[in-house]
Amino acid sequence: MRHARDTHGAAPVARSPRGLAAVALLALLAACSGGSGGYGGDGGSSASPSAATSEPAPSGSAVALTAGSSVVGLPEGVAAPPAGAVAGASRTTDPSLIYVITFGSSTCPMVADPDAVATGAAGAGEVEITFPEPTGGACTADYVPATTVVALPEEPTGDLRVLLGPAGDVTLPAGSDEVEWVIDQG
Q1: How many Å apart are CA 162 and CA 100, to the nearest integer?
Q2: Which of 10, 58, 141, 169 sits a CA distance of 20 to 30 A from 107?
């Protein structure tokens, strides 16, 4: 063990290679655990009240048909998405709710806000889905679907256009409960 030379009159400080390695490892772990959760956010909390969306249920769980409910996985009865799918939406058995499906890390899923925002004139049949800023933390590098139940501002009477943030948009035909997918064109 070496002792550092003190130039201020204090007692010598012991330094061991193991101690320095342990400190370096802790610093590395601390640096890796921070971050944006993989969605480009600043790691801070969102100012929107919906940022308190609950954590999704574990994969394999059924998603409750309640606005804000979410699960890592697809809704029951939905087949695997087509190749290149980056997001999707479908109607539910409750005409005031839709499923929003996103893709990303299973430990940091992109969960939609619980309430859709009407765009355009009342009854225009178009809603926008918003997403809270992700919280900081380490995320796995897997790519899995996550489903969120989202409330509509009013029950649609015809086709419904759903704007899914930067992923794109889909149109849900009246009377259909099939998932409409946004396919990556790149």
Answers
A1: 9
A2: 169
DSSP code per residue over 39-50: TT--SS--SSGG
Angle at 71 between CA 139 and CA 160, to 5 degrees: 110
Question: Which has the higher per-residue pLDDT, 133 or 55?
Answer: 133
Token readout for 21 is 């390695």
Residues 88-108: pLDDT tens digits? Answer: 999 999 999 999 999 999 999
The answer to whether 61 touches 52, Cβ cutoff 8 Å, is no
The C-alpha angle 157, 146, 175, rounded to 5 degrees, equals 20
Q: pLDDT digit string (tens) for 2-46?
A: 444 444 444 444 444 444 333 333 333 333 333 333 333 333 333
